[in-house]
Specification:
Length: 150
């Protein structure tokens, strides 16, 4: 009996659908980053969250969820884990007790530095695959999709 990996799969129209190819590319990119960052003990999806908090000390959870493209219900467990593990400090604001402000702890900054090195290596690999001359146009197209698809 042939293994699943050896089987040919007929993708039909999916082969030429941009949305499907975007999803496949995102999955492959995520897995490649995971291989680079596995020693950190952190899921690769947490990198953007840590990075945004590091670049925007005191950012609210609401602003972070918008910037990260995650709804608050999916961001909350991520933040709970990062707080529990000592990478993020979450504090209520004085003016609005429902609002939390987020900052990185010293351990969070160390982890972010480690993940940032992995991300830079990963991005160089993507630049090589896309082609340095094509990267600006590729990013322009991705941003257009992200902002205009709704």
């Amino acid at each position: 009996m042939p293994s699943v990996a050896a089987e040919e799969v007929d993708f039909g129209v999916l082969e030429n659908w941009v949305g499907f190819q975007l999803r496949m590319a995102q999955s492959a990119s995520f897995q490649a980053f995971a291989r680079l960052s596995h020693q950190s003990g952190m899921r690769p999806g947490r990198f953007a969250t840590l990075y945004l908090i590091g670049r925007n000390p005191g950012i609210s959870q609401t602003a972070l969820s918008r910037a990260n493209g995650k709804d608050k219900s999916s961001l909350t467990p991520v933040l709970n884990d990062l707080v529990r593990r000592g990478f993020v400090h979450r504090a209520r604001t004085r003016n609005d007790r429902r609002t939390y402000r987020l900052t990185l702890t010293p351990d969070g900054r160390k982890l972010l530095d480690q993940l940032n090195r992995c991300a830079q290596r990963h991005d160089r690999n993507l630049d090589r695959l896309i082609g340095r001359r094509d990267v600006p146009r590729f990013l322009e197209i991705l941003r257009k999709i992200a902002t205009e698809i709704a």
